Amino acid sequence: MPEEFEPKIVAFFCNWCTYLAADLAGTSRIRYAPNAEVVRVMCSGRIDVQFILKAFAKGADGVLIGGCHPGDCHYQEGNYKALRRYRLVQRLLPQMGIEEERLRLEWISAAEGDRVRVVINEMVETLKRLGPLRKAEGERAADLVEVA
Amino acid sequence: MPDREVRIGVYTCHCGTNIAATVDVRAVAEFAAALPHVVLSREYKYMCSEPGQDLIRQDIRDHNLNRIVVASCSPHLHEHTFRTALKVGGLNPYYFHMVNIREQVSWVHTERAQATKKAKDLVRAAVRRVGLHEPLERGRVAIHPDVLVVGGGIAGIHAALTLANAGKHVFLVEKEPTIGGHMARFDKTFPTLDCAACILTPKMSAVRAHPNITLWTYAEVTKVDGYVGNYKATVLRHPRYVDEDLCSGCLQCLEACVYKQAKVPDDFNLGLSKRRPIYIPFPQAVPQVPVVDPETCIQFKSGKCKTTCIEACGERHAINLQAESKVEQIEVGTVILATGFQTFDAARTPYYGYGRYPNVYTALEVERLVNASGPTGGEVVMRDGRKPQTVGIVHCVGSRDENTHRWCSRVCCMYSLKLAHLIKEHTGAEIFNFYIDIRTPGKGFEEFYQKLLNEHVHFIRGRVAEVTDWVFDASEEGKLVIRVEDTLAGFVRRIPVDMVVLATGLEPRADAAEVRRLFNISCGGEGFFLERHPKLAPVNTFTDGIFLAGCCQGPKDIPDTVAQAGAAAAEAMALIDAGYVETEPNTAHVDEAVCCGCKTCNSMCPYHAISLVEEIRKSRVNEALCKGCGTCVAACPSGAIRQNLFEDEEIFEEIEGILSNA
Amino acid sequence: MPTTTRRITIDPVTRLEGHGKIEILLNEDGAVDRAYFQVPELRGFEKFAQGRPATSMPQITSRICGVCPTAHHMASTKALDDLYRVAPPPAARKIREMVYSAFLVEDHTLHFYFLGGPDFVVGPKAPKAERNILGVIAKVGVETGRKVIEIRRKLRDAISLAAGKAVHPVFGVPGGVSKPLTQEDAAQFRQAAAEALEFAKFTLGVFEKLVLGNREYVDLIRSDLFTHRTYYMGMVDEQNRVNFYDGALRVAAPDGHEWARFDPREYATYVAEHAEPWSYMKFCHLKAVGWRGFQEGAESGVYCVAPLARLNAADGMATPAAQEAYLQFFGALGGKPVHHTLANHWARVIELLYAAERLKELADDPEITDPNVRVLPEEAPREGIGVVEAPRGTLIHHYQSDARGLITKANLIVATQNNAARISMGVEKAARGLVSAAHADEGLLNMVEMAFRAYDPCLGCATHSLPGSMPLLVVVRDRDGTVLSSLRRDGDGGIHRS
Amino acid sequence: MKPKVAFYWCASCGGCEEAVLDLAEAVLDVAAAVDIVFWPVALDFKEADVAGMDDGAIAISFVNGAVRTSHQLEMARLLRRKSKLVVAFGACAQLGGIPGLANLTTASGVLDEVYRDMAVPLRESREDGATLTLPELFDAVFALDRAIPVDYYVPGCPPSTKVVADAFQALLRDPPPEPGTVLAPNQAMCDECPRRDRRPEDVKLARFYGVEERAIDPADCILAQGFPCLGPATRAGCGARCIKGNMPCTGCFGPTSAVRDYGAKALCSIASIVSGNEVEEIDGTLDGIADPVGTFYRYSLPASFLGGQAGNLPHGRQ
Fold it and tell me: Are B483 and B505 in contact (CB under 8 A)?
């Protein structure tokens, strides 16, 4: 790569814990890597596996899921649903040729602004080590239509 | 997809220099202008300001915009502001999406180019998403007029009375056998030195007497269901074995107890005195009804007691040792949490000798010692029976300390000055205050500090290193030596004293986490309950209809506590008098054309909002019960459930928007 | 080495399941120099089978071919029995064989009336527009046409009862079948079986009347043009009678004597595969004899499977009517073994009759409604081999798995691979005999086609590839590819030379 | 004049042709209603005839099978040119089908596996001085609409006779269905499952079973028994064939039109009903799904967001 590879991370944060933690990181002026961009959902339980795979297919090098700590879900147990889905996707990704480390789930409470920094910075490092995730077949297949 | 042509207006906010300093706002605005469907893109100093909002309202008319994107601060701060602006501008408030380029961009990144690029990505995502937005209406939920107040300290008492006086019915639930909380243990209150009991006990009796207040002491909330306006709470009332309705409060049963000497450590006096198995926490306790402590009562232990207490009660038959706990079910519209605090456990700072040296006391213990109705009848005598000649007051025990708690407990400086004054008054002892800083920010506080200086109380600046009985010379013989670096004098000193008072700080109650879960609210990092916004919503929580009062939200003194209790009561009243709340429309709904009735969703919902309609064999969402988490939406195997504002397609667009230059 | 100046391309060939392509290279004299039978596709089921649960193989491998999915499903299911070391209870075994027999009846029917039959029923010389199912119907009568459609429907409906689906069945599980048969199911099978048997007898009659009754056709069958002296392989029961579902594999030498009889599990010690860089199809041959190129005779490992081979490799048929036809077959064609490729059509009708008789036997067996149709495996899976006789010949599924039952290696040897070498030889021989640059007319087309259509070759299976028929086109080109002349057979049967 | 209709098979197994033939007697009615101008399996018209037609001369082309070779791509494009409407017929054309599992590897991966220690077939090889050629094998299998624009879809592996018959009806009707329509019910298979009422209100699975581990009860909801049945995620129209065969649905009819990536959605839903909140407990349960791709993407890998691994590899097709 000509200049250093800057990984692209799509972060799905729940509205009540991790999104607030990210806000807190802001109000506390905690600095961290700009590679992650947040999609806000009400609960980590809303995160459809389709969202995760879509992100990878469209060029994300990593996907981060942020939810409330176990037992702390604003909706009681949405984060457990997220955890179950996450564990199963983690078994699917390697079969699809995607390293497990590219998908990460973190419980970050509204009070843990600094945790947002730590997690995102760590993830950027990991992804730099892994390098870019190659374009998915879905992308290339579109070419067939164009030349048709 | 919306029927008419999508015309988007994008507004990028400078927020003074908060955003503009790190993000090239002009570049973002120009970038947005070039995006599909964007007919207007502006930058502005303060979008949340009146002129900023007016800009949106005007543009909606002049350029007949039908979608608005504002890139500024966190939606948690101003989403509502801008939605209202749309509404006033004649547009459905949900044709709006907010981009957080302050908390999550300008304040957390330093490199301008990268921050600007991120801001552009997020704006593009919002523009792509907002095009799919549908008009939505907020629902209304009726508010049950009754209020549940949890905690009978001064905060709960004041909140309850305020509401009751306004004609609202209040359920006041207190864990202890009496209300009054910490304040009931205090002797005098700073800075006015008026008697705590004199100002508290009338309010306590008022609670007891008030027709609009149902008081349940010795009780706990064990379960909470429902949502704003419609909470269902389960209250467990422990048996006190003395019937509150039959008991006249004559207290003859106490005298009659077979225990002639009180043998049980008295927790109200922090173990500085003893009580009997049947007791009343303190003379002005409310209710004036004794409690039997089954742990120590002979009848409970052996069953062989003469139960003289029952004889003493005679005709009233108020005492029933077979009594069992009661479960009460109540419905309320709002809840005020006033569960208070606990004092820091001095044993966690062993170098101060608490528990090792009998003459090391906590401040709260001294509050009892100086109290006329306390264990010593107001005499300041130490555990060894001596009157102290010299007293050292150690500040910031369990406060402002990396090893224990980082925060300042706000009240310790002032109560230490108060205790210094009172001890001196009672004993004439020589008093040393060991402090890091003296903090006297409240009304009349600084004056009180000056008064103490004039009373020749010593002030030594420095965090105490240790309290020891290891003496160097005769002058220290039989005394406790306080080792401290005097940071004003600049050398280490050894101050021999008779009595040491540890100014222990305030910390969250041990059960704060359980209570938080019970009421589904958040805690801050230090463990105190988290307010919705530190400035704009200090008594609100993130759960609608649940409010905070007093030290459960953070350390504060009595005036602040009372003020906050009043505020919480007012917030509750505002809801009650409005009669309803508007609910966010981001609820889930079933597309019945697609639903196959597989019932996967039904089990997903923690609020039982989804059920199968047998006749049509399709699931249906009760939108009043739905809280809009969207878990069922992700779980629906056939994509039959959708969530307003978080439609699959909207989120797909957002993802592609973020990545379309990846 | 003679320099080739011209080529004829037949691409692709029709009325078989799959893509086939024939390259005929001519020398200066315009005589055939070499002919190649190419198969141009590959899907690699062996590869993507890896990592899949073995138990999903019966359903995944059936997608190799939608014409004979039941054959793959059954071979795969038997491989699972072996993989998990579990034997299905009697009822399950009978249900499997009954379904399989029903499948063979409808599949052989398909070939006789739709694919191969037209050549004889309608006649090699008949106008091309008639040489198809419509022509057959015209010849045998619309009623028969409807009968063909009806009998196939009834059989496939019955199959669906037991197997869930006729195309891509789902009932095969290790140690049995997914569910027992109800009395109603059994009744429907009995009904279909009775009609199938009648229909099979009728079909044999049609063949005898229209084919054997016609001296020209019989001569054509016997002509040296379509004769190869090779080995033959097929599955037999304990009495060495033809069996489709289970038994031992038996190989007859070109002179007819039993060259080998072995447990299918040992296939690898007897059968080897050879690949050529110009075809995706692998060429099977007898390991012990070895690969000597496309040669016939006892010294060449080339062998073949499918109906003729099965009859040659066996000592008879297990059912009365079929046995009678079997004897008549060898009587008429001069004793075992019969080396005439085109005799496959006759052999196929005899098998059709056998399958129908077997179907009836099983449908009438009260045990097929026994509720005990499953034995659960207890051993950890390791390696399994399953073999059946597909309509087109011996079909072998061979799996290895890890302890969780995930496939680590799969090897699939399908009927047409066994025939690949002999098909190529047949094509070349027919081409040599019929074709020259000057004389590359329509007669060539069908003759060359008949040379391999007789095997009812499923090239889809052969390459685990993608079946698909194509019109027949012969192009005569010189070396640099310029078209000298081409022949195109149209729907109206007219031949256009350009 | 009767509308001209063509049937063609790309990378298919022939099961779709059988599915049409399984209309049995009804085939003749269809044949009567339209003028079949191209159907290699049954009739002797050929590519050349199609090439000779005017563009758009064919009313409807039914194309089954996925696109794997350069030749199939050419045929697909030819038929697209000649046809007013193109219908992707069957799971392979709609989603890529089971051969689409090849996208987990590449052409070279396939060749290495099949021809280990043998001569590997070449696109071009010289025999006795002549050059023999084979068509290009793409590195990935493509669903038909990734190769050419498709107007309608008929789902299933193979499509059920009912779906096929209804599809013909729908297409001959006026006005025709919305472009892009999948010509089958837009609900999940549970809707027509004979066991739907046997599904408990709250299915929570602590263990998944394989058919080798446990016999399937012929009456109860198969998912509730712990077998990953994809009926709730899969479009109806099959008549619950596999359920009637007492086996779990494996999803050959693909998703409803409310879902974009079948496997992701099915996976998401199945994971949602796993019991337990502790990672260890959840993982223990998920061990029962040893092959997620094969389980959730058996028929739809080429049409999924990620499309399988093949396209991701550096030597993937350009």
Answer: no
